[in-house]
Specification:
Layout (H helix, E strand, L loop, with lengths): L8 H9 L5 H6 L7 H5 L6 E3 L5 E5 L6 E3 H14 L3 E4 L5 E7 L3 H9 L17 E2 L13 H9 L2 H6 L9 E3 L14 E8 L2 E8 L11 E8 L3 H15 L10 H23 L27 E3 L5 E6 L5 E3 H14 L3 E4 L5 E7 L3 H10 L14 E2 L13 H13 L2 H7 L4 E4 L13 E10 L2 E10 L11 E7 L3 H15 L7 H17 L11 H22 L1
Parallel strand pairs: 6-7, 7-8, 16-17, 17-18
Antiparallel strand pairs: 1-2, 2-5, 3-14, 4-5, 4-13, 8-9, 9-10, 11-12, 12-15, 14-15, 18-19, 19-20
Helix pairs in contact: 4-5, 4-10, 8-9, 9-16, 14-15
């Protein structure tokens, strides 16, 4: 009988170190006493070792990205004391600190906990921060009490405290309607409300995920009664715990489990767990035909949006490269009190919005934001660029994303007449294949790389087009690789081609990309520095591993 394949090193480290640390005790230990393996386990408390030795990133857990002004003031105080006065907004609607010293980690954790904000499960092989629509709770299109459902899932003891040993990270989205604003199709679990026979229930998707090999989620259940949503979310997580690959970490995500079983097979596994747990009422769940059909996001450049309560508005502000100083955070908290209801939301495009602003106060707040230098026009257009932190602080990045971002803002975003002519286009850029900035689901996605040339190793990007989370979803397709200095001219040329070749102003860049395809765009672009196919050996290796994993998963399920 062949020997059983070994667990990954991370799985061994979980057994050896556990998930919880006393960070007061950690602060007292000498630096040389920590092994890289032990430091890696800090992730379960939202902590990663930074590129710069002796410094850490620590992430906050904020379901739906919602903050009160009091919480934001505390976040600002913490940034000023322990994180070089900097805050960063993530694409999962969290805030994170960089440049935190090990001896200050417990202070960040404890001081944020005092105002109801945890760092627990912000990272690690756990259910991560549960995300939602930017307008969660106030959207005019919302069909159910989205925030209540989001918190019911996010704060359930099983997901928050007990299921902390999954094979990889687990991501959940809870949307307010069947549109793409909450990114349903790129999450491990994606939920949105649907009505059946006059009763509001929820449609359940599973198996979405990005990383080096992106997957679009499959529709698992057509309709789940509202009272069973949390039970189904828990059961789905339990299926993942049982079937996730713990021997090849690159294949450990739920997306692999769902893809290998198929939508129907995965539905059956979830129902099995519900029956094991003696959950009542599961006969009401409608499996359906597994059709995936998500509507287009209604967010399309509006700086001000009326809420479902007439006379109250959301006011949006673009945050350049997702970075805030402590002073800015304090300022935003004060404006939320002065003009709105004292709450703010950080969005999946790394921006900020003020909620419940009365109509009479909207002009004053908008004018103040503009006066203080914040961008209040161009959402979902060229100025609204999503970007990761790049090589400034990340161990994995190979591209200087901040520098490229600055060039794009300077040379493209300042030309308002041009980008208004271009129209809606979502641009996302990553410093590596790990997709923190979600390049694979953008209209235009950039992924950092380094290549050997006759001049040595050069920084560049793979360029993708056509990513979408609407309809059945679509992973962006590779167009070409370019050197970093050529990124801005390439994007300008690409968008000028679109303006010239589109059938009418009504044909969006997304529709245009679908029509001409990535290969058609490459042909129109002509000669490009690098100019090679960006799908390299890494994905080929992944595909080979994946085939082996599918065979292993199917054997495991049949046993």
């Amino acid at each position: 009988m062949p020997a059983k394949e070994e667990l990954t090193q991370v799985e061994k480290d979980k057994l050896h170190f556990g998930f919880d640390f006393d960070f007061r005790e950690i602060a007292r230990r000498p630096a040389e006493s920590f092994t890289p393996n032990e430091l890696a386990m800090f992730k379960w408390t939202g902590i990663y070792q930074q590129l710069q030795k002796g410094f850490f990133m620590i992430r906050l857990r904020m379901p739906g990205g919602l903050f009160t002004s009091k919480q934001l003031v505390r976040a600002a105080e913490v940034a000023e004391k322990y994180a070089q006065n900097e805050l960063c907004i993530t694409t999962r609607q969290c805030l994170q600190y960089h440049w935190v010293r090990r001896e200050d980690l417990y202070k960040v954790i404890e001081e944020m906990k005092e105002v109801g904000i945890l760092t627990k499960n912000a990272c690690g092989d756990v259910t991560r921060n549960v995300v939602s629509c930017p307008l969660v709770g106030v959207c005019p299109h919302e069909e159910a009490d989205t925030f209540q459902m989001l918190r019911a899932i996010a704060d359930h003891p099983e997901l928050l405290d007990e299921q902390r040993n999954l094979s990889r990270k687990h991501k959940i989205s809870v949307a307010g309607c069947g549109r793409a604003c909450a990114q349903t199709l790129m999450n491990c679990q994606g939920w949105y409300p649907v009505t059946k026979s006059g009763i509001v229930g929820w449609k359940f998707h599973a198996g979405g995920g990005l990383g080096s090999k992106p997957y679009i989620a499959k529709a698992i259940f057509e309709w789940v009664p509202a009272e069973l949503v949390v039970d189904v979310a828990r059961a789905s997580t339990e299926v993942y715990r049982r079937l996730g690959n713990r021997r090849v970490r690159a294949l450990a995500r739920l997306k692999i489990v769902v893809d290998s079983l198929g939508a129907q097979g995965y539905a059956e596994k979830v129902l099995e767990v519900l029956k094991e747990r003696n959950v009542q009422g599961i006969e009401k769940i409608v499996v359906g035909d597994h059709t995936v059909d998500v509507g287009e996001s209604f967010l399309d450049g509006q700086p001000v949006i009326e809420q479902k309560t007439k006379g109250l508005f959301v006011v949006r502000a673009i945050i350049k490269r997702s970075e805030l100083s402590g002073q800015e955070a304090r300022r935003f908290a004060a404006w939320a009190e002065q003009f709105g209801d004292g709450t703010l939301v950080f969005t999946n495009r790394q921006n900020l919005l003020f909620r419940s602003v009365p109509a009479a106060k909207v002009p004053a707040l908008s004018a103040l934001l503009k006066k203080e230098g914040y961008i209040t026009e161009g959402f979902e257009h060229v100025p609204d660029i999503v970007a990761c932190v790049g090589t400034t602080v990340c161990n994995l990045a190979v591209a200087d994303v901040p520098n490229t971002y600055k060039s794009m803002m300077k040379d493209l975003a300042l030309d308002e007449a041009w980008w208004r002519k271009v129209g809606p286009v979502r641009i996302n850029m990553n410093g590596c294949p790990n997709s923190c900035a979600q390049h694979a689901i953008a209209d235009i996605g950039l992924r950092g790389l380094r290549k050997r040339t006759e001049r040595g190793s050069e920084e560049g990007y793979s360029v993708f087009i056509g990513g979408s989370l609407a309809g059945a979803g679509h992973v962006a397709e590779p167009v070409c690789d370019v050197t970093a200095p050529y990124v801005v001219p390439l994007l300008k040329k690409m968008l000028d081609i679109y303006v010239k070749e589109r059938r009418s102003a009504a044909e969006t860049f997304a529709a245009f990309s679908k029509r001409i395809t990535a290969s058609g765009m490459k042909a129109l672009l002509g000669d490009i520095p690098f100019g090679t196919d960006p799908v390299g050996e890494r994905n080929q290796d992944y595909d080979a591993l994946y085939k082996d994993s599918v065979i292993a998963a199917q054997k495991k399920v049949s046993q």
